[in-house]
Amino acid sequence: MAKYIWYSGATDITGKALEEALGLTGTKTRPRNLSAGDIVIGWGAKTSENVNLVGTVLNHPNKIRDNRDKFKSLGIMKSNRDLAENVATFCAANRIVRELDSGNMVLPLVGRTKFHQGGKGFWLCLTRQHVDKAISDGAQYFQAYIDIQDEYRIHVAFGAAIYAVKKIENPTEAGWIAQRKEKVLDYASKNNVDLTDATVDYVLGILVKEAALPDRIVRSNKRGWKFSSVTLNNLSAPLKNAAIKSVEVSGLDFGAVDCAISSNGLPFIIEINSGPGLQGTALQKYIESLTAKITELERPVRANPVRRAAVAAGGAVRRAVGANRAAPADPEAGAVGVARIMQNVRTDAEAQAVIAALIDGRI
Predict the structure, then answer these.
(1) 228 or 170, which is more confident
(2) In this model, does residue 11 exceed pLDDT 60?
(3) Lateral strand order in the sheet of 254-262
(4) Do the Cβ atoms of 124 and 115 come closer than 8 Å?
(5) Do residues 86 and 242 touch, judged by C-beta distance below 8 A?
């Protein structure tokens, strides 16, 4: 069994850290010559078109590509009944004038590009004139402005929240310089550029004088904010549940969900990062979650009681109903399918539905 982690140039620092910790083969391109038992982990993998991958794929690159298009991602989440109220209203730039005229959208609005990152591609629009200017500057869609009380990043893996941080003010010049310096040195190292500490400190010391810290609109580390860990039990249950649901609805297995509580106490999902930069405790949480999932996938059928039960149930069903359809060519594949269904059963009603499907041969 071969195990790969497919990352991009923007996600390779953490990707390589996971590669080493998990004993994976790292790549920035599509893994070749895959077999049925292989495992591929997508960590912000980039692909311009659909790819078909053999084996088990965690965070499929096709879903990562969908998520990278923030406009498309919002549409996927907004269309889900359980998540619709947690996504602020939005529309494409070519419809915004009609939506404003009809009252479906109201000012203030935030203009964005479909593939925005961080604080880039952001226009706060207080007037119609601002909207027009944003479109001429490149805004591709608009979303209702969220009056944020608290902003969080909740890390979700395989249906559970595993770690969370809250954005807090980091308004001191020293704090701003320290955060920016780390990023600058990372960029320089990746591009083989030699920079001395004195040079970096001098330039950042000039730039910090031009920054208004903290920025009350865009809460990024470039604008006077930083992450501080929070206890999962102290998170709002509706916010945590919405974060978990957003990853599921997006077809991802894991991701860092940027989300917020509005000034009137409502939970909102902002976006999902499929290859977040990690260090410290956050990195360790992903290592633990991915290790557990890989171990589960590598475990033989006889050592997995859920899969064993699924195999036994499938055989019993065929005998009981005298099924005349051919058994699957790969019994293990059928067992895995049933096991995955059973692992996602959350209520007695769902369990009864699965059992009924087994009995009448639909599974």
Answers:
(1) 228
(2) yes
(3) 225-229, 160-169, 148-157, 254-262, 267-273
(4) no
(5) yes
Tell me if 250 is assigned to some domain: no
Q: Which domain covers residue 337, as residue numbers?
A: 299-359
Cβ contact 211:176 at 8 Å: yes
Pick from 62, 86, 106: which residue ends a domain?
62
Q: pLDDT digits over 70-92, tens only?
A: 999 999 999 999 999 999 999 99
DSSP β-bridge partners for residue 271: 258
Q: How far, in Å, CA of 346 to CA of 48, rounded? A: 36
**Alpha-carbon 58 to chain mean position:** 12
Task: Tell me the pLDDT tens digit for each residue of 302-342.
Answer: 444 544 444 444 443 333 333 343 444 444 445 555 555 65
> Cα–Cα distance between 309 and 311 in angstroms, integer?
5
What is the Cα–Cα distance from 343 to 229, expressed in whole angstroms? Answer: 30
The helix/strand count (H/E) of the chain reads as 12, 13
Angstrom distance (rounded) from CA 229 to CA 221 = 15
**Residue 325, helix vs strand vs coil:** coil
| Domains held by the chain: number | 3
- Is residue 244 domain-resident? no
Within 8 A by CB and 6+ apart from 35, the residues are 1, 2, 54, 55
Q: Looking at the domain assignment, is residue 151 inside a domain? A: no
For residue 103, is it left (φ>0), alpha (ψ between -120 and 50) or beta? left
Q: Which of 210, 236, 259 delimits the end of a domain? A: 210
- Within 10 angstroms of residue 288's Cβ, the number of other Cβ atoms is 14
Tokens of residue 23, six digits? 């004993």
Tell me if 40 is assigned to some domain: yes
Q: In the structure encoding, which two tokens stand for residue 194, read together?
A: 């030699």
